[in-house]
Amino acid sequence: xxxxxxxxxxxxxxxxxxxxxxxxxxxxxxxxxxxxVGKGYHRAAGKPHAEIEALWRAGKEARxxxxxxxxxxxxxxxRTPPCTDTLIEAGIKDVVAAMExxxxxxxxxxxxxxxxxxxxxVCGVLEERARELNEPYIKHITTGLPQVIMKAGMxxxxxxxAASGESRWITGEASRxxxxxxxxxxxxxxxxxxxxxxxxxRLTARIKGGRDPVRVIVDSRLRLPLSARIFDRDSDAGxxxxxxxxxxxxxxxxxxxxxxxxxxxxxGPRGRVDLPRLMKSLGKKxxxxxxxxxxxxxxxxxxDAGLVDKVxxxxxxxxxxxxxxxxxxxxxxxxxxxxxxxxxxxxxxxxGGDLLMEGYITRN
Length: 364
Description:
Strand order of the largest sheet: 10-9-8-7-11-6-12-14-13
Largest sheet: 9 strands, mixed
Order of helices and strands: HEEHEHEHEHHEHEHEEHEHEHEEE
Number of strands: 14
Oligomer: single chain
C-alpha cells in the first residue's frame, strides 16, 4: 500500500516539471481510513509546498492522517515557512517519504523534528524513482553545478550532419517533439558557435505551454552573427554568450547592447572558454539542468572536462558516411578502449521511426 500512495505522490510531483526550479519537484497525498483526503504539489518557486497544499485541501480531515511525500519535509525558513511545523500543528500521525532531502539545511533534520513531536516517519519507499525524478536538484544542491544532459540526433554511423553541413532533418518529427519537451523542462540549453552559424537555431521549446530555456552559446572568438535568430526577442528567455578576452571587442560591445543578452568572459586553456567555470557560473544563477545540443567539438570538450552526466542519443535509420561529415563527438577521441567514455543504466525506446538511447556517464 505504501508504494501505491507514493506512486500517486510522484505523479503529482511531475506536474511541477519546468516550473519550480531551482526547487525540487514534490507531490504529496494525505491518507485517512484508506482514502485520499488531500493532495497537492509544488507549483512554482515561492509558492506553497506540496505538503501545505495537501493540508489545505484536507482541512480538518488532516488530523490523524498519514502523509505520503516524495521528499523529506523541509524544516527551515526559506521563501515559505517550515513544512514540519505546519504538519505538527495539523496533527499528522505518520509521514512516509521516498527519500531524505540532500539539502544540508534539511537532510535528516526534517525527520528528527517530526519524530521529536511524536510523528512516526518512514523513509525509502520508491527511493530510486524519487531520485531519478529530482536528479537536477540533487546534482545542483550537492555540487552547485547543473545536471548536464548531452542530447544529439544522429545517423546510424554517428553523424550529425552531411558533408555539406545539412542536418535538417536527420531524426523524425516524433524525436523533434521530444526534444522540445526536453527543452521545456531544462533550465538552459547550450550549443557552440558553429551550430549557430550553420543551423541558425532558435533553441526554444515550441510546445503549448512550454517554458523556453536560457540559451547558452560558447563562442571563444565571438564569430556569432548579430542577425542570428537566437537574438530575436520572440522569447522571454535570456541568452548567455560565453567568450574569452581574445574575442572581438567591438562585437562584444554590440552583443552586450542587445536586449536579453549577457556576455561573460571565462578564459580557459588554449584560448578557449573555461567550461568548468561556465558551469559554476550557471549554477550560481540557479540553473539546475542544462541540455547540451552540440556540436561535436563542444560535446567532446564537455565530455573531456567530465561535465556531462547523462546522454540522450536519437538514432535515425540512415547512414551518411564520409570523413568530412561531422560526428556527434569530435575532438581527438580516446587513445584506447580503456579510455573510452562508458555508460551505465542504459535504456532504449522507440520514438517514432527513431531509437532513443539514454544512459548515465560511468564515474570511476
